[in-house]
Amino acid sequence: MFEILRKSFATGVVTTGYPLAQAEVSTNACGRPEIDFANWKDARPAVAACPTGALACADSSGTRTVTLDLAKCTFCGLCAEADAAIGMTNVCELAARRKEDLVTTTEYELGSGGAHQKLLGHQASGTDSQRGPVEALGAELKARVEKVLGRSLNIREVDAGSCNGCEVEIAGLNSPVYDIERFGIHFVASPRHADMLLVTGPVSRNMELALRKTYDATPGPRLVVAVGACGCSGGIFGQNYASLGGVDKVIPVDVYVPGCPPNPYALLHGILLALGKRRV
Ligand code: SF4
Q1: Are the beta carbons of 92 and 27 closer than 8 angstroms?
Q2: CB of 70 closer than 6 A to ligand 1?
Q3: Which ligand 1 atom sits nearest the alpha carbon of residue 75?
Q4: Is the CATH number 3.40.50.12280 carried by domain 131-275?
Q5: Measured in angstroms, how far is the CA atom of residue 73 from the centroid of ligand 1?
Q6: What is the pLDDT of residues 130-178, one digit of tens each?
């Protein structure tokens, strides 16, 4: 007992300062792919390598429209292996309130052989603009929880067909390093005690009814956060005989958290974003 106490004191505080401090993500971690749009010669090899359809292109009348949809991206890095114009970053704070904010669209004029000749336009995703404000949110997080819900925030986690990769990261939120309880945020065992549903998985057809019932059992105002590529879009499974293709196919979603799986910083970022929006 005394030995444990001695070790605890010797270790000191291990809890991250996030979101007041920057997220300490390993430089080896795979986050959002970054594309050198200005010097991109041809999107087709990277599009062919992408296993989820996150990177897609469509040609029409001498132009090509290329889209990168972070809701579908598993951060696998195959596009970066196929094309030197693409690199993988460790950027993980990518949550968005609207699914369309996760999409980057770029248009090129095509030259001979289908190569890019000229960059015609670029519409960045909305996630970049949201990374700055989350640090400001951290300072007033507790006040915001109280203002939005009048007390602490209770989360019910719902596994709607996940591989459990997201659950491993969610469990990390309760570890001494991320310690989500310091914000007055708790995980609860019943949707009847919950303010927020944190939903993982592409929503298997066997889980559809359970998810609907869980949503209905959660008292309003309630928030729904779709977690991971599967929760955002169906991920690698998409929509098929066994999978409905994402949480918003079944219940309304307030915030989408991309990643495969999203790390605890990304989850915390998404939860903070959700607290800025209330469904009455
Ligand atoms: S990282 Fe993987 S899933 Fe994401 S765009 Fe690249 S190839 Fe597609």
Answers
A1: no
A2: no
A3: 1
A4: yes
A5: 5
A6: 444 455 555 556 566 556 555 688 999 999 999 999 999 999 999 999 9
